[in-house]
Specification:
The complex is a heterodimer of chains A (about 220) and B (about 160).
Chain A lengths: L1 H18 L3 H24 L4 H8 L3 H7 L9 H11 L10 H9 L3 H4 L6 H15 L4 H4 L4 H8 L3 E3 L1 H6 L10 H9 L8 E4 L8 E2 L8
Antiparallel strand pairs in A: 1-2, 2-3
Chain B lengths: L13 E5 L7 H6 L3 H15 L10 E3 L8 E8 L5 H9 L7 E10 L5 E10 L6 H16 L4 E3 L4
Parallel strand pairs in B: 1-5
Antiparallel strand pairs in B: 1-6, 2-3, 3-4, 4-5
Classes of the chains: A mainly alpha (about 220), B alpha+beta (about 160).
C-alpha cells in the first residue's frame, strides 16, 4: 500500500514539474495553491466550532472567518495571519522559496499539515535536542550515518530523545549551542547510556541506545 | 436523497474524468483553458481530493431542479486584464467580486465509492443558464453509469 502511495505521489510531482515549465501556469499555481491551502487551513483550525465561535477565539467577526475560508475571497495581510497564529498558538512561515522547496511543501497535504498542533513545550524542546545532536553527528552511531533512519532523525520525525534523558541530564535552556559544549556532551561517557532513543510506534520496553560516533574527539 | 460528499472513513476522494475514448472528454475542455485557469482548476481539485471531511460549499455545491442529481465544482479566477494598480483601485471600491471569471465543472458522486466523476466544464457568464450544460452532463452521467469505461481515473495536477 505504501508503495502504491509513493508511486502516486511521485507521479504528482512529475506532472506538476512539467506544468511548472510554463511561466503563467507556474505563478498562477503558486497563487492558487497558497489561497486554497490557506483557506483549507482556516477551516481545519476552526474544527467543530461555528464560524462565530471561532471568530471570537481569534478576535474576528463571523464574516471575516467566512471570507478567510473562501479561497476566491481570502487575501489576508500578514498582520492578520500573525494575529491568528498567535491566537491559535501556531507558528507561521511566510518566505520566498525556490520551486523545489515549494513542491516539497505542496506535496504534504495531510490533515496534520492542514491543522498543525499548537505549541507544546516538551515537543519543541525534544525536537530541538534531536536536531541539535543529530546535526553534530552525536546520534549517527546508533543508525549509521547514511541510513534512512538517521535521515528521519534529522527531520525529528521518527526517533526522539527520551524524556528521562532530557530531565535527568540536560536542561535545554541552560545549555549553549556552541561547538565546545556539544563536544563536551558527546564526550561524556557516563551520560551516553542514558541517551535513549524511543521509536514513536515501537513495542513497549524496547529502547535503542545511542552511541557517539567513534570519530568524534 | 444523497447528501453532500461526506466521508465516513479516512479514504480520500478519487476523481474520474468523463472520457468516452478519443475526443469529447472533459480533458478536451481542460486542455483548451488558459494556463492560469488550468492552475486554478488543479489547485481546487487537489484541495477537494485531500479534504477528508465535508467538501466546503465555496468549492462544491449540490444542484437542484433540472440539474439534480449533479453537483458543481466552483472555480473562481481573477481576470488578468487589470494591472495591480487598477485592481487595487477596484478592490478599494468593493468591486473585487465583479472582477472574477467563474468556471464550473459539473459532475456526480460515483460510480464507485468515494469517487467523483467530472463530466463537463464551462465558463459561467452572468445570469448563466445551466440548462444546456446540465442536459449534457446528465446524458454523460447515464453513459458512465451504464458503462464504467466511459470514465477513467484522472489526476489534477
Amino acid at each position: 500500500m505504501a508503495n502504491v502511495l509513493d508511486h502516486a505521489i511521485s507521479h504528482r510531482l512529475l506532472r506538476l514539474a512539467q506544468k511548472l515549465r510554463k511561466k503563467k501556469y507556474r505563478h498562477s499555481y503558486v497563487s492558487a495553491h497558497v489561497r486554497q491551502f490557506l483557506a483549507r487551513q482556516m477551516r481545519a483550525l476552526r474544527g467543530d466550532d461555528s464560524q462565530e465561535e471561532f471568530g471570537k477565539r481569534i478576535g474576528k467577526a463571523q464574516n471575516v472567518v467566512s471570507r478567510l475560508e473562501d479561497p476566491s475571497r481570502a487575501s489576508p495581510n500578514i498582520s492578520t495571519l500573525l494575529e491568528i497564529a498567535a491566537k491559535t498558538d501556531r507558528a507561521l512561515i511566510v518566505r520566498f522559496v525556490d520551486f523545489q522547496t515549494f513542491l516539497q511543501f505542496t506535496d504534504d497535504q495531510s490533515e496534520t499539515a492542514a491543522a498543525p498542533p499548537p505549541y507544546k513545550e516538551f515537543e519543541v524542546d525534544e525536537f530541538a535536542w534531536n536536531t541539535t545532536l543529530s546535526k553534530n553527528g552525536y546520534m549517527q552511531g546508533a543508525f549509521g550515518a547514511q541510513s534512512p533512519q538517521s535521515k528521519n532523525l534529522l527531520l525529528g520525525s521518527q526517533y526522539q530523545v527520551s524524556s528521562s534523558f532530557m530531565k535527568s541530564n540536560l536542561d535545554p535552556l541552560s545549555q549553549s549551542d556552541d561547538e565546545p559544549t556539544l563536544r563536551a556532551i558527546a564526550k561524556k561517557p557516563p551520560n551516553l547510556p542514558q541517551l535513549m532513543l524511543t521509536q514513536s510506534e515501537r513495542p513497549k520496553g524496547q529502547l535503542l541506545t545511542a552511541e557517539p560516533p567513534e570519530t568524534r574527539q | 436523497m444523497a447528501g453532500r460528499p461526506v466521508q465516513k472513513s479516512n479514504d480520500l476522494w478519487r476523481f474520474k474524468c468523463y472520457d468516452p475514448g478519443g475526443q469529447g472528454g472533459i480533458h478536451d475542455w481542460y486542455d483548451n483553458l488558459p494556463e492560469d485557469v488550468q492552475a486554478e482548476v488543479d489547485a481546487a481539485l487537489e484541495t477537494l481530493g485531500n479534504t477528508r471531511g465535508e467538501w466546503p460549499t465555496v468549492l462544491h455545491e449540490r444542484l437542484r431542479g433540472a440539474c439534480y442529481p449533479l453537483a458543481e465544482i466552483k472555480i473562481e479566477v481573477d481576470q488578468d486584464d487589470l494591472d495591480d494598480e487598477a485592481r487595487d483601485i477596484r478592490e478599494g471600491a468593493g468591486e473585487s467580486e465583479d472582477r472574477k471569471n467563474h468556471y464550473r465543472i459539473l459532475g456526480f458522486e460515483g460510480p464507485g465509492r468515494r469517487e467523483f466523476t467530472l463530466l463537463c466544464g464551462f465558463k459561467k457568464e452572468n445570469n448563466s443558464d445551466y440548462g444546456p450544460a446540465c442536459r449534457s452532463a446528465k446524458q454523460r452521467r447515464e453513459g458512465v453509469i451504464k458503462d464504467g469505461q466511459r470514465a477513467r481515473p484522472c489526476n489534477f495536477p
